[in-house]
């Protein structure tokens, strides 16, 4: 199924017509049973590559599908999914993450990242720490409240799920934050 067909199918889940909506839901269910990993990965790529062209309602549907099906995903493809979701999440640095629609999307991404942290190995968490460090050391973050907010949310996700992290890592993150001056 190509990207446009998949997006059309997802948008039909919002249809007011019960028949169209039900057909779309059945089609999505069969997709998730047959090739869940490729659908999830394709959706995450669509988000990263076309998020400015997709209305926020459809982005929320995509994120909801990913969240609801992430636990069924094969761990071999999950690294690509993690990378795509992090890139999508970081793209909110370039917009205003404080507006209503973006807040809903950001909250959904946080839920997905929390799920990924719980099913993924510790390397994923260390990759997140490296992304956080790189962004905290970037000079642009000092002049952008949006960028700082997104990075703080990543820190929140990591510290909330710190059962896999050593205390020294949490202390390192806190030291990075405390040395930050906007």
Structure description:
There is one protein chain. It is built from eight helices and no strands. Helix 4 packs antiparallel against helix 5 (100-119), helix 5 runs parallel beside helix 7 (145-160) and helix 6 runs parallel beside helix 8. Helices cover 73% and strands 0% of the residues. The model has no long low-confidence stretch (mean pLDDT 79). The longest helix is centred in the N-terminal third of the chain and has 33 residues, at 18-50. It has 182 residues and is an all-alpha fold.
The succession of helices and strands, N to C, reads HHHHHHHH
Instruction: Give the averaged pLDDT, no decimals.
Output: 79
Outline = globular
Oligomer: single chain
- Note poorly predicted spans: none
Distance between the termini: 46 Å
Describe the biggest sheet?
none
Determine Rg (CA atoms, Å).
Answer: 17 Å
Question: Strand portion, in percent?
Answer: under 5%
Class by SSE composition = mainly alpha
- Give the tally of β-strands: 0
Number of distinct helices: 8
**Which percent bin holds the helix content?**
over 70%
Features of the shown structure:
182 residues; mainly alpha; 8 helices; 73% helix; globular
Q: Any chance you could write out the topology, listing elements then pairs?
A:
Blueprint: H1 3-12, H2 18-50, H3 56-69, H4 78-90, H5 100-119, H6 122-136, H7 145-160, H8 167-178
Helix pairs in contact: 1-2, 2-3, 2-4, 3-5, 4-5, 5-7, 6-7, 6-8
